[in-house]
Amino acid sequence: MPPPSDIVKVAIEWPGANAQLMEIDQKKPLSSIIREVCDGWSLSGSEQFALRYADGPQLYITEQSRSEIKNGTILRLAISPARAARQLLDRIQSHGIDARLEALKELAKLSADPTFATEFISMEGIGTLARLVESGTHFGEMLAFTLTAFLELMDHGIVSWDLISLSFIKQIAGYVNQPMVDVSILQRSLAILESMVLNSHSLYHRVAQEITVGQLIGHLQVSNQEIQTYAIALINALFLKAPEDRRQEEHTNPLDQRLTEMASTLAQKHLRSIILNHVIRGNRPIKAEMAHQLYVLQVLTFNLLEERMMTKMDPSDQAQRDIIFELRRIAFDGENDPSGTEKRKAMYTKDYKMLGFTNHVNPAMDFTQTPPGMLALDNMLYLAKLHQDTYIRIVLENSSREDKHECPFGRCAIELTRMLCEILQVGELPNEGCNDYHPMFFTHDRAWEEFFCVCIQLLNKTWKEMRATAEDFNKVMQVVREQITRTLAMKPSSLDQLKGKLRGLSYSEILRLRQSERMSQDDFQSPPIIELRERIQPEILELIKQQRLNRLCEGSCFRKLGNRRRQEKFWFCRLSLNHKVLHYGDLDESPQGEVPFELLTDKIPVSDIKSVVTGKDCPHMKEKSALKQNKEVLEQAFSILYDPDENLNFVAPNKYEVSNPFYPQNKYNSEDMYS
């Protein structure tokens, strides 16, 4: 008889018959089990049948998946996947509309099953569905079920998306572009187009030529969040797969722009404001999938900065050098430059030092490290051009100081840009399952640059609050990083709200929060202590194990409880030196020192020990637990249970006794003691 672990007790249903209660032997072939089930209902041709789950997705059971069957599962005898696929394929091509609708409805449900999908696809079923769509004769529910089945079958990855025809793509795109279309059809059409783009490079180009931004914007203005989610998912897919050289192209009318140029459109107010007003600030809470798509859109938008972030400045490029000249001119109004070359060079060197560049002679060298590369210079120019008063104030305020507390603008701007790239993970692909989007980045067409402008002012303010010098540069940057990350965690809804929250996180507030957090948690939970503990833990655990074993080998003395609850004799128990046997025996009095093994006449092989129990679970306490005077004894009792159904009972001297290696106060269990 096979062991119980190979036997699964299930109930099996068949329409119009009483369920069979069976014990399935998992070692027997599945075909033999199906034959037994068929024999129970006098059904012939068992090879035409299969088992499916009666609940949930109702998947077919195969030799590979049968191990997942649990005791008490309800199964259902059904026609085999191949037979079901053939029948449905014939029915969806029948002339009767009602029969075809029912067949497509059943097909949409079964297509999620990989076993059925394999059979249906092998019969050219996907081609049949594609032709039904291309014919344009299906509408309403019939078309919705057709598209659902098609998408489910393709999602199994059995057939390549590259086999999809252009006419099929045009038909699906037509459903998306129609002003009035059934919601279920639109939803599935958007999902199919997204899968095409993500799974086929060639289909990306075809889809991108059929869909425009203006057409998708309409789907973002509806009240159905699922449609909005699928629309943004399609935008993200096209954005993600767009060739690098086409992401930055500009068109005169963004709404007529093809999705191959999605990146430039995302920077336009049209799409951003629609997402902000109709999705983020809509009257409905953001669901998890929508939050994920917004996060993906945010990541892909910031990834447009990667090229500039990884571009080093060419010190010999005059156009790039002119940007630095422009920064100097705006800060110091250098229109009346001295005529002499040497005088101009000396003046520029002084100005570049006042601007806070590390290399005063040739500040272009400050931008040769990537990241942040040229992105830092872009941010500085944006601040100087769009927030000129702020820029001039920061530069002049610090350049006029002579107490070594000046904040070097150039160096700070470069390091801050690098920090922001790290915090917002510029250049990294979106993480699956992450939904950490920030609403404020959808409130401005130049959200990245505006974010930098807010943070550089924060840095300047924190520098002054810390009364920092050049030696404190790294400390200041650490505080600023903490201020920014703490504020981002609050998810400010706008840049103005970001400014307000940052104002509340002054340097003194950061110190207060740090102190509060240190006091609210055990010092042993600090990162250095945790790291140290993890490093030495294996050695400590081994030391504890040896100490416990040594204590067990030394043994302990216990008092025996008599029938009249009067403490009478003593007994001693100790572990053999090879850790294989427990020796114990009675003593007339409490021993002084170690008791020789020869005096302990009884023994228990450690291999026979089943478990250690405590308190009221102990055999010698069950009849005594009702007596009040036994409460203290109850807390100190423990027993070793061993084969065959025997026990060795203990009562510790007190519940705090640490000399007793068996007592659970020492946090021992049977595995610890006898491993």
TrEMBL record:
Its main location: cytoplasm. Signal peptide: none annotated. GO terms for biological process: actin filament organization; apoptotic process; cell motility; phagocytosis. It is found in: Cytoplasm; Membrane. Residues 319-488 form the ELMO domain. One of its GO terms (molecular function) is SH3 domain binding. GO terms for cellular component: cytoplasm; membrane. Keywords: Apoptosis, Cytoplasm, Membrane, Phagocytosis, Phosphoprotein, SH3-binding. It holds the Pfam family ELMO_CED12. Involved in cytoskeletal rearrangements required for phagocytosis of apoptotic cells and cell motility. Acts in association with DOCK1 and CRK. Was initially proposed to be required in complex with DOCK1 to activate Rac Rho small GTPases. May enhance the guanine nucleotide exchange factor (GEF) activity of DOCK1. This is Engulfment and cell motility 2. It comes from Salmo trutta (Brown trout).
